[in-house]
Amino acid sequence: MKKIRYSALNLVPIREGSNEREAIDEMIELAQSLEKMSYERYWIAEHHNAPNLVSSATAILIQHTLANTNHLRVGSGGIMLPNHAPLVVAEQFGTLHQIYGDRIDIGLGRAPGTDMSTASALRRDKHDGVFQFPEEVKQLIQYMGPDTKQGYVKAIPAIGSEIPVYVLGSSTDSAHLAAREGLPYVFAGHFAPQQMKEAIAIYRELFEPSEYLDETYVMVGLNVILADTHDEALHLATTLSQMFTGITRGRMQKLQPPVKDLNNVMSPQEIAMSDARIQQSLVGDKAAVKQQIKDFVNYYGEIDEIMGVSYIYDKEKQVQSYQYFKEVLDELNAENA
């Protein structure tokens, strides 16, 4: 098993009893904790019209995080490119690069990150951007490339920044693009694991080496909840279960505290659906999660990085979960060195 890097994704959720500003402050506190743990990177998502999330102005949150950390890589997980002109994205991130140097990643997605009515309000081209995604990825990369590759329109001050670009996906479509362009590929296994195996296989099979990568780079986003005991981890995971159910009900509720009995807040069918999703996550004590990672690699093949998504209501328990996750991967990496 090759060395697996560890990183984190934050959708900047609002906890029940909290507000938007407190969620942003908690985003910074978590980033600072992960920096001390030597996490590889910290990405912030883009979502719109979600009253339980504060991640609509992703580039501003990235800047705020960069300003309050010292060396942690910070990026987008992702920028939903159909919502934005590639030129504007290049200008924004090129400016961040000028201020903070080589600490920035750009993860790019083709979904709107919202409902269709809000997508219509956001998009400049009435949904054509989804179909233009491959071409716009190439445009963005060109804007950040050397001066010799620029046309009349230039993304100043992004020229020559060469900010790393990652292609995000929750289906097989983006796997083809990442492979064809020789870019690193990130699969959103934390919310859409159904096509993960097929998408990763397509990416590996069709990958063409490029000036960016000599060989494949596979990152997967997974829900990660670790605790001192397996039972405690399952208890903490009831927050994740409630979040899943809120989405299926069409209710974007704030992050809920864990509950002793899900039967009090969810139907048997909802509990069954949630349990199936939990089984595709990394949930348990350190020994259990260590085995889960081994089983994951045996099934999906070797991966380069796991980006943990941790929906835990208690902030201290969330930091502890990320600490335990790091320790598990450090142990696995040492065993396979």
The proportion of residues forming helix, as a percent range, comes to 40-55%
> Could you say what the CATH architecture is?
Alpha-Beta Barrel
Low-confidence runs (pLDDT<50, min 5 residues)? none
Number of strands: 9
Radius of gyration: 19 Å
**How many DSSP H or I helices?**
13
List its traits:
337 residues, TIM Barrel, eight-stranded parallel β-barrel, 13 helices
Write the layout of secondary structure elements.
Layout: E1 5-10, H1 20-36, E2 41-44, H2 58-67, E3 73-80, H3 86-100, E4 104-109, H4 116-122, H5 128-131, H6 133-143, E5 165-169, H7 173-181, E6 185-187, H8 196-206, E7 218-226, H9 230-236, H10 238-248, H11 268-278, E8 282-284, H12 286-300, E9 305-309, H13 315-335
Parallel strand pairs: 1-2, 1-9, 2-3, 3-4, 4-5, 5-6, 6-7, 7-8, 7-9
Description:
The protein is of the alpha/beta class and 337 residues long. The protein has a single domain (5-225, 284-335), classed as TIM Barrel (Alpha-Beta Barrel). The protein is built from 13 helices and nine strands. Strands 1-2-3-4-5-6-7-9 form an eight-stranded parallel beta barrel, surrounded by eight helices. Strand 3, helix 3 (86-100) and strand 4 form a beta-alpha-beta unit. Helix 7 runs parallel beside helix 8. The model has no long low-confidence stretch (mean pLDDT 94).
